[in-house]
């Protein structure tokens, strides 16, 4: 009796092992045969195209993510003919996307540059949208308001029934998105902001390209942005003198300064500027105190992006300490807070990530005014 | 400690400690300045312009703010504990900090709900100060109006708590409709901050503070009488209603202005009076009041020195330090003494 039991147990184990192996083998085979999308800088996602469908993988939906997401993107016309093992994928999404909800203004340029902005059906916090085309659609009630901030109004999303919701998360805990997922509306976490270089962030336009079956157009758009960026960088490298630059402003006692590994620092480096905190490392911003900043940056030539302040007067009334910096005395402070859309959304927060070439040219123009004579500042303006 | 001489010695000692703490506080910070440089900067003879500015316009105002905040909160905590005869009472039991929070929330978070008109207010320093003062004043006024109709001092305590709940709920709604940046500003205000007050602000601050302190000193006799209980105090000829009003106004001036300028600083107001009672072993307010002023200043200066993390670029929120440093000290003292001097 015992022997029979043992045998059957072994048989079960053998079958299990064999079937598991079989399954991983088929998955492996599928993964190996696909054609990978060409990505030069972005590390947070990958796309493989197979005969009848594509597989989109998101590796880093948020910083230090320990899970990745895999989506099957299936051509609408072939949906009927294909059987996929849905357990292998977080969602099966019909493409090209007809109705999309995005949740961050940084996602909007991806739609607009691919001429797909008319597919946007909902957005949380529409007052922050600067894009004229999308603003027109909002005014015509073609884009629904989904509430404020991260508190996306679940009911409205369920009513809209978009093909996909593009979300962003600071971690994996987003109950709203879980509810939307449970209602069979696919949610993709966009991790563009986790990338560590301006060009890598911009390359996420290819992610939208895949969703709309516009890989070629996305490639073209990205290549032209990259070419412009590198051209500007080469131009800036020719200048000998590197002006000293610092950034940010204080929240109460804490001065937030981009760390030396951030995109902001990378852009300043590429603009051939001497960013005074270029040798710092870490995630997020540096939280410094006034003494440190004053001691290091008092004599700095240029001050970039002093938080929310839009004029010298505002800076002065917020804190008299600001007036003691040379950059303040010589009126050499530049901010992107003054470049706004029709309803007050700061343009830089919408388009800055998608167009690093324009940000870099702005910084070069600020740091080396003798270069780029015919170029007008796009995001940054001198403080009023 | 029983006789006059021992008290005198204790006060002199405390005062010397306060002076030392003040000098140490000014000497230490993120930027490492040698002691000689500190003194030269202090008297304006230093050749290093950055150092001179840091000492004269950043560290010195910060140290003065620490003294005002520590002593003011200590005094208002003492007044409230005596008035309500409750060892758990602090300067904020009357809803002063929640009122201030509401005012500040309306300014910082209001733009999320009321549109861009509020955004203009955001960038001015005074707007937050005025909003906090108005908020705490209005909540306190409501508490006073309601409490004028009740006889029982304990009822005032509960009314204060109820007002705190109401304002908390409104702040919650405002927070819900705010952007991340606005929330960050509001949260940072809640951490408290001693730095970044200009001389002009310190002047206004110390003016109101002095007024509150004079009222407190004027209430010493009433406070001592109140310790005996409301009925007994009445039989001794104390005008209970007037004394209560004086004490509440003094507290609101002190705690309200401190919250307006430095944010809702936690713990100090509750702990300092206990510490002082334990050390001085008396409940006589003639001794307690000046002792609380000295103790509060010393503790706040020490907390600020720690919060600055000398020689590092970083700084910690003062509220975290006040509780982290203060709570263990009080626990240790209570365990040693085995009973609460109250």
Automatic annotation (TrEMBL), chain A:
It comes from the Bacteria. Residues 1-21 form the signal peptide. The keyword Metal-binding does not apply. InterPro entries: ABC_Transporter_SBP, ABC_transptr_periplasmic_BD. Keywords: Signal. One of its GO terms (biological process) is cellular response to iron ion. Coiled coil: none annotated. Pfam families: Peripla_BP_2. Residues 99-371 form the Fe/B12 periplasmic-binding domain. This is ABC transporter substrate-binding protein. It comes from Formosa sediminum. The lineage of its organism: Bacteria, Pseudomonadati, Bacteroidota, Flavobacteriia, Flavobacteriales.
From TrEMBL, chain B:
InterPro entries: ABC_BtuC-like, ABC_transptr_permease_BtuC. Pfam families: FecCD. The chain crosses the membrane at residues 12-33, 60-80, 92-120, 126-147, 154-177, 197-224, 245-272, 287-307, 314-335. One of its GO terms (biological process) is siderophore-iron import into cell. One of its GO terms (molecular function) is transmembrane transporter activity. Keywords: Cell membrane, Membrane, Transmembrane, Transmembrane helix, Transport. It is found in: Cell membrane. PANTHER family: FERRIC ENTEROBACTIN TRANSPORT SYSTEM PERMEASE PROTEIN (PTHR30472), TRANSPORT SYSTEM PERMEASE PROTEIN (PTHR30472:SF41). Belongs to the binding-protein-dependent transport system permease family. FecCD subfamily. This is Iron ABC transporter permease. It comes from Formosa sediminum.
